[in-house]
Write a structure and sequence with these properties.
three-stranded antiparallel beta sheet, Beta-lactamase, 46% helix, alpha+beta, 2 domains, binds glutamic acid, 13% strand, 321 residues, globular
């Protein structure tokens, strides 16, 4: 069914979602990265970005938090921009692992590539593929510039988070070297891991994530800067990656209940994409057992369910002024 919704009704819906969800309890901050354990647990924000660049926000949408695994989407976009869809599929893959984000088992079970750039192994592999191979500084600059392009404004490295994560990323170190063992990493493993750790430690706001989500929803056109960040033909590829594994081993449940592809991060953020519709982000630090923000999930679902939107065949909405 085609539905028309005014921007003011959407504004009211976002405010209602915020009110309904703000006192939800449950979950706990990620504590395996010490820095994240100390972020105030009661922060909560929702931001929705429309293709005309208009932002609809409630709560703590300008609080800067660790982007963490949402950065995997950004760097997957960079690899797609630099090397194309075929190369990403051949060197990394686009399959869900069905296992937790940092699974070593998933690497052992895969025959020839790490599965997807949206789990830790594939994300480290994606960092290894970023060009120019062999030049850490230039690779980092490419990663940062691409994040800025998608978010429409610069992100800032959170040095404390980077230090905290570097001091404790033993599992990711094992992943990087296991990938090396199987020829599934395409640059120096330690350098690739460091780039991954740094990208996860970038500070971002829910507002910036909503803009990045809307850039993907708008087929590569950043709604705020009007820059065509990536060729429109790559949009379905990135949406397919997110839809397959954005919530790791719980992606099926998420797609079934929310109807839209979204990517989570253990910093408490979630970035959702309704292709042709809007970008949406929510942020609240307490996570469920699978490492996904409790309130951010509830908030995004509240909005998608009330709108009836669903990439598998829900209502199509036209947003009017
Ligand atoms: N930097 C985190 C890690 O590699 C990201 C995990 C996540 O956000 O899912 O453990």
């Amino acid at each position: 069914m085609k539905k028309t919704i005014s921007t003011s009704s959407l504004r009211a819906l976002v405010a209602e979602a915020y009110d309904q969800v703000k006192s939800a309890t449950g979950g706990a901050n990620a504590d395996y990265i010490p820095y994240l354990a100390n972020v105030p647990s009661d922060l909560f924000g929702i931001a929705l970005c429309l293709p005309n660049g208009e932002l609809i926000e409630a709560g703590d949408t300008d609080y800067v938090f660790g982007i963490e695994s949402i950065s995997k989407v950004h760097t997957a976009v960079l690899v797609l921009r630099q090397s194309g869809a075929d190369e990403l599929l051949a060197k990394i893959g686009a399959d869900a692992t069905g296992l937790p984000f940092n699974s070593i088992m998933a690497i052992l079970l895969e025959k020839d590539h790490p599965s997807t750039p949206l789990v830790n192994s594939g994300a480290i592999s994606a960092c290894s593929l970023v060009k120019p191979v062999g030049n850490a500084d230039a690779k980092w600059q490419a990663i940062v510039d691409n994040m800025t392009d998608l978010c429409g404004s610069p992100l800032v490295l959170q040095q404390e988070l980077y230090k905290s994560e570097t001091a404790t990323n033993f599992n990711n170190k094992s992943i990087a070297w296991l990938l090396k063992n199987y020829n599934r990493i395409y640059d120096d493993p330690d350098m690739s891991l460091d780039l991954y750790t740094r990208q996860c430690s970038m500070g971002v706001t829910a507002r910036q994530l909503a803009v990045a989500g809307c850039t993907i929803a708008s087929y590569g056109m950043n709604p705020v800067t009007k820059q065509q960040v990536f060729p429109s033909a790559l949009a379905p590829k990135i949406v397919a990656l997110i839809a397959a594994v954005g919530f790791y081993e719980h992606t099926g449940d998420w797609m079934y209940t929310s109807g839209i592809p979204a990517k989570t991060g253990v910093g408490g953020g979630i970035m959702g994409v309704l292709p042709g519709g809007f970008g949406i982000a929510a942020f609240a630090p307490p996570l469920d057992d699978a490492g996904n923000s409790v309130k951010a999930q509830l908030a995004i679902k509240y909005i998608t369910q009330h709108l009836g939107v669903n990439v598998y065949g829900g209502d199509s909405i036209e947003i009017t002024a």
